[in-house]
Amino acid sequence: MANAKMRPFGTLAVAASAAALPMGGNAQAADYPVKAEPVAPVWVPHWYFSAEGGVLISDYSRSAFPDGLEPGFSDKFGDVCSDTIFVECTTHRSGSLGSRRNIGWYGALSIGRDIDPVWDWRLSGSFNSFFPNRRSAAVNQAALSSGDTTGAFINTSRLVTETDRFRFATLDFDLGRKWEQGLLHLRAFGGFRALATDDTFNISDAEAKGLIISGTDTLFTSQANRFTQTDGRSHFFGIGPRIGVEGFYGTNWGVAGSASAAALPGWRYSTFDQASASTGSATICDTSVTPTTCVGPFTFNVANAANAKRSQFTVVGDLAASLGLAWRPTPIVGVEAGYRVEALLNVRDSFGFVNAVALSGHFDEKRDVVIHGPYVKAVIRY
Question: Could you tell me the residue ranges of all domains in the chain?
Fold first, then answer.
């Protein structure tokens, strides 16, 4: 009886132990970490904005009077100081028409957006303006001659003021490809550039001449004045391919640089206008009688004009490079400061075509404009 009762109890104990084993195994398996599947990164396109500005320095100005202003009054009598009848001649000069440094400013804006992780597009525009370059020079010549019965005194003066100004604007669109290798970030780009220029100059030329000749019984006086105004203007518009590269090397601080080249076929239109007005008077007096009797003044007025224009197809070259120090405190904001150089080749008209008709001056303007100066640039990427 006792044995019959113990068998059920033992069977239940074994069954209970067997039932407990799977439960213990399940609890230990639940404690193991589950391995997560890798998630591919999601690419998000970014916008690009930049603003840039700086100083323009060049030396494109050239005078229309490379040999100076003498004689003080140019007429059929020539240079009074070279005439042998004058025993005394003095010349005083002041000012200078020599090439003076041209100073200006520029500003540029740019917007762009990523197309995919390595390609992007960018649209940029700039305006570049030099301040008017004004320079003046004057010359005064006085000559004296005396004889036994006659004497002569002549005085001439000339004042010339030249002013010129050069301005241009650019518009760029390009596609770029980006590379990254360690600390080096590069972007090569290709696209189109449009260029429009405005080149002007004007010259005021004022001349005066006075002559007194005295004899035994006569006195002759004359005076002449001449004023010549010259205005020239040239416009160019062209569009053509442009390629370049820009880069950055560093972390938060680094070196930034760029280089580009463009060939811009287009059309140039130039106009030249010159007007001259002369006035004069002469008087003859008889000093042998009292009171002195004079005849005159006899006056004259003469006006002359010269005009020319030219329209031509031409090609302008544009080479640019910059190098600066960049600071990128965050991936979004960057600041850059440095120095840039730009060469605009064949961008100006020499105006040599007007020398055959010009009333005064010899025109040979510089065709190339080489620009350099410091710049500051701010960039936002988000």
Answer: 56-381
